[in-house]
Design brief:
The protein has about 400 residues and is mainly beta. The protein is built from 1 helix and 33 strands.
């Protein structure tokens, strides 16, 4: 899923000072606003929130103030739910059992906007568009996230893959659509459609294709079991892994860097591999570099900083800050206690979400959430929540 951070925020020190002046409340509180059985709020918000964060827990959603981390609202929503930025300043996309639902995080209520379909998958933000991929149907929906403020389902582009699969799609600034190829049993690569949905390029040399990210100069990549596939300037380029099986399945990109951050796994037979190396993919030089962190991490551990820094939340509890150009680990910021990735991917584990100069890190073992200034390495705020959280996201305008 795309975690590209756009725009410049306050400097880390200025942000820490600004936030420190307004932080007066701890978490663990909830507004008394009632909820309907489907999670829709039945009253107006009791607590205003700034730069909302949204965290999932077993049976619902927490909406928190991004500055104070104060818990403003609890929404009941049964099932395993996932959350991603919708691409504007107000909304978050919630993946539910029935499809993608749009949450107005600012107003603290689920809207009536829904993209129904089995197995809602990746949510991608790029070039002022948001793209949803529904695995169970192969349907792709593209829309302008600013249109969500109307309260009505945006009118946007739709495309349906030849066969349903666990896929991903991204629309480029000129309207070209890059979308994965595969079936439920086998995923093989990606194709490109022009703005009229005519196929203009295809590459089937990416076994097990998974995940996407965009780098500087609109280089778009999808991961493979033996490397990574890049589409840029109308051409596909495959970068092979140094190992016969070297899987890159999750990536994080930044407009501030031509280098992508990816995970890296080498054991195809592992029930759960806990890798200690990450990949740095230079989309300009078309080269792949491996960096050994000395600790493992999970698929929710990768993000990018405001200047393109590669960020990895390790199971040693530290946030590893990597220079993407040199592969040097510049610093290790203490974030949470040591942890181990659970076998079931749906089980909770510490999760990293970055917005501007702030890294938000959840610590489900302690029911905690932390805000960390990436520049200074200092914790701005920590709170304790009523229940352990799983996924963590928030509003992110512009992409």
């Amino acid at each position: 899923m795309s975690t590209s951070i756009r725009g410049r925020a306050l400097t880390g020190t200025a942000l820490a000072l600004a936030v420190a002046t307004v932080l007066t409340a701890c978490g663990g509180e909830s507004s008394s606003t009632a909820t309907e059985s489907d999670g829709t709020a039945s009253a107006t918000p009791a607590v205003a929130v700034k730069e909302p964060l949204v965290a999932t827990f077993d049976g619902g959603l927490y909406i928190l103030d991004g500055e104070s981390l104060k818990l403003a609202k609890t929404i009941d929503l049964p099932g395993f739910n996932r959350v991603n930025p919708a691409g504007d300043k107000d909304h978050v996309v919630v993946s539910t059992d029935s499809g993608f639902r749009v949450l107005d995080a600012r107003e603290q209520a689920l809207t009536d906007i829904e993209y129904k379909g089995a197995k809602p998958g990746h949510v991608v933000r790029h070039a002022a568009k948001t793209v949803l991929f529904t695995d169970g149907t192969g349907e792709v929906n593209v829309f302008d996230p600013t249109a969500l403020s109307s309260g009505k389902k945006p009118t946007g582009r739709t495309y349906t893959s030849a066969t349903p699969h666990h896929g991903v799609a991204i629309e480029l600034s000129d309207g070209r659509l890059v979308s994965t190829l595969g079936t439920e049993e086998k995923r093989i690569g990606a194709l490109v459609l022009d703005r009229n949905d005519k196929e203009i390029a295809r590459n089937e040399n990416c076994p097990g294709v998974h995940g996407e990210a965009a780098a500087e100069n609109e280089a778009v990549a999808v991961g493979c079991e033996d490397g990574i596939l890049i589409y840029q300037d109308g051409t596909f380029t495959k970068i092979d892994s140094p190992d016969d099986y070297g899987r890159i399945g999750n990536q994080a990109g930044s407009d501030a860097s031509p280098v992508l951050l990816g995970d890296y796994k080498t054991d195809p037979e592992a029930e759960l591999e806990r890798p200690t190396r990450v990949s740095l993919i230079d989309t300009e030089k078309k080269k792949l570099r491996l960096v050994d962190l000395g600790t493992s991490y999970s698929f929710r551990s990768l993000a990018r900083g405001p200047h393109g820094e590669a960020l990895v939340l390790g199971t040693d509890g530290a946030l590893h800050v990597i220079d993407p150009d040199t592969g040097t680990i510049e610093k290790k910021i203490p974030a949470v206690g040591a942890w181990q990735e659970p076998l079931d991917w749906q089980q909770a584990r510490p999760t990293l979400f970055v917005r501007g100069h702030v890294a938000y890190v959840s610590e489900p073992g302690r029911k905690a959430l932390h805000a960390i200034d990436i520049e200074t390495g200092k914790k701005i705020r920590s709170v304790t929540l009523p229940k352990s959280t799983n996924e963590l996201s928030g509003v992110v305008a512009g992409h």
